[in-house]
Design goal:
Blueprint (H helix, E strand, L loop, with lengths): L1 E7 L5 H5 L8 E5 L2 E11 L2 E9 L2 H5 L21 H8 L3 H5 L14 E11 L4 H8 L5 E6 L14 E10 L1 H16 L8 H10 L10 H9 L2 H4 L3 H13 L6 H14 L6 E5 L5 H7 L6 E6 L2 H14 L9 E4 L14 E5 L10 H12 L3 E7 L4 H4 L16 H11 L5 E8 L10 E8 H4 L1
Parallel strand pairs: 8-9, 8-11, 9-10, 11-12
Antiparallel strand pairs: 1-4, 1-5, 2-3, 3-4, 5-7, 6-7, 12-14, 13-14
Length: about 450
């Protein structure tokens, strides 16, 4: 992960005094087991370029963390991606420039706008290229986004999701760095540290002079602070949110609509006493399932230890309600047979199958239909056709999706799965329907035929 800053034009050499780093010495430091190095690759009268890069210790990234025994720690990009971790590591090296406190004789240059060329990456972001441009262009930058070549052995993506961002504009070095220290974590959508009131102070300090006038100000604040109790300490933002709430009907998120559809489907079933929620995550759906009348057992099956710990906390908070049964967390996976899941009334795969390599699904479905034999199986998955409505930049909605199917593809797969087994199927759509592309989510309900009779 790296950042390069180039100043072009008269006074370019002053850049070295503003960041207080000697161009003839290598800056090489350890920051909490992460190696930070800063070098000048160009140092001429009218062009100076400084590059700062970080090499983290991959072991230290997970040591003494809640993820220490979680399989998902082995599949992450934190060692490489420019993120809040990167900003934290380089803050000390760039502290003089960020605070605008060079030696007194160079103080007058703090407010001097240079022609700056800045490059940083790789970034791993859920945002489209257009969204990233919308964040950076209002600050006066010309934005270019570069993607790497892909050479996948399977047809998932036509281009890399990893990006390098190139910026060009007239800025003071202090303001340019402050832009990046706020917006890099927004673009990456990840913070490696606990967010508290100190984050408000940083946002106010680094956002001075530009954040209030930014057209995406509210989005930046919400992404930076995350929690409503912190966000609400920005009175003008809270007031605006309150006005919007009273001026228009609240929008229901698609995830909420999925949960509602699954719950209503189960309520319509005559046999629903025992339920298996596969890929239960943090337990949001499992808690709702436990509140359905006549449900006696909910098994929340999840492979991620971190997600399950959060689910357990959620289950404990919900336990005050004496009218429901508390879900039972099970650390498990679709890839491993578990006799505790045999012959249940309902089994659910809500937005799960698209996270699995497609070639592995036939064996998983064979295990479900021939071994577990639930009376009812409910499967939901994205409808790829509906992505046209979202005008997406990516082929799939989430970087972890191994595939997304059209309605016809989903129907064809479901027909194949129940070939030679006694199950029927029914298809439904979830979410706002489009005349041409259908619903954003598709759902199939499989019912064991002996149960029908």
């Amino acid at each position: 992960m790296q950042l390069s800053v180039k100043a072009v034009g008269d006074g370019a050499k002053i850049l070295s005094y503003l960041i207080a780093k000697n161009p003839y010495n290598l800056y090489d430091r350890d920051e909490k087991s992460n190696r930070v190095r800063l070098v000048y690759t160009v140092f001429d009268e009218k062009e100076v370029e400084v590059v700062i890069f970080v090499t983290p210790d991959p072991v230290e990234l997970v040591r003494n963390s809640a993820n220490a025994f979680d399989i998902t720690q082995y599949i992450n990009d934190r060692e490489f991606a420019v993120s809040s971790l990167f900003c934290t590591n380089i803050r000390k090296a760039l502290g003089t420039a960020l605070n605008g406190k060079p030696k007194e004789e160079y103080q007058k240059w703090v407010n001097h706008p240079f022609e700056l060329h800045m490059n940083f990456g790789p970034v791993a972001s859920h945002l489209s290229d257009e969204n990233i441009v919308e964040l950076l262009h209002p600050l006066g930058y010309i934005v270019e986004i570069e993607r790497g070549e892909t050479n996948y052995s399977f047809e998932l993506k036509q281009r890399s999701s990893s990006r390098f961002i190139h910026l060009k504009g007239q800025q003071t070095i202090q303001q340019a760095l402050r832009h990046l220290f706020i917006l890099i974590p927004v673009i990456d959508n990840y913070k490696h540290y606990f967010i508290d009131e100190h984050e408000i102070e940083k946002l106010v300090r680094y956002g001075e002079g530009w954040l209030d006038s930014h057209p995406l100000r509210e989005y930046i604040i919400k992404q930076s602070l995350r929690f409503s109790e912190l966000i609400n300490q920005f009175p003008s933002l809270a007031k605006k949110d309150d006005e919007e709430e009273h001026s228009s009907a609240p929008k229901v998120r698609l995830n909420e609509l999925r949960y509602q559809a699954v719950v209503e489907k189960i309520k319509s079933l005559s046999q629903r006493a025992s339920i298996v929620d596969f890929g239960s995550g943090e337990g949001k759906l499992s808690v709702r399932l436990s509140n359905i009348p006549d449900v006696k057992e909910v098994l929340a099956v999840e492979p991620s230890e971190t997600a399950q710990l959060r689910a357990i906390q959620r289950f404990e908070k919900a336990s005050y309600n004496q009218t429901h049964v508390s879900p039972t967390p099970i650390l498990g996976s679709l890839f491993y047979y578990d006799e505790r899941l045999l012959n249940k009334d309902v089994m659910i795969l809500c937005e799960v199958i698209e996270h699995i390599d497609e070639y592995r699904l036939p064996n998983i479905m064979k295990t479900i239909f021939r071994e577990y034999q639930p009376k009812t199986l409910i499967v939901t998955t994205p409808n790829r056709e509906y992505n046209e409505v979202y005008a997406m930049d990516e082929i799939v909605r989430h970087s972890d999706h191994r595939f997304e199917w059209t309605r016809q593809e989903f129907k064809s797969k479901c027909e194949t799965w129940i070939k030679n087994v006694l199950y029927s199927m029914e298809f439904e759509g979830i979410g706002l329907e489009h005349e041409e592309y259908g619903h954003p989510t598709q759902m199939c309900t499989f019912v064991r035929k002996e149960v029908e009779r």
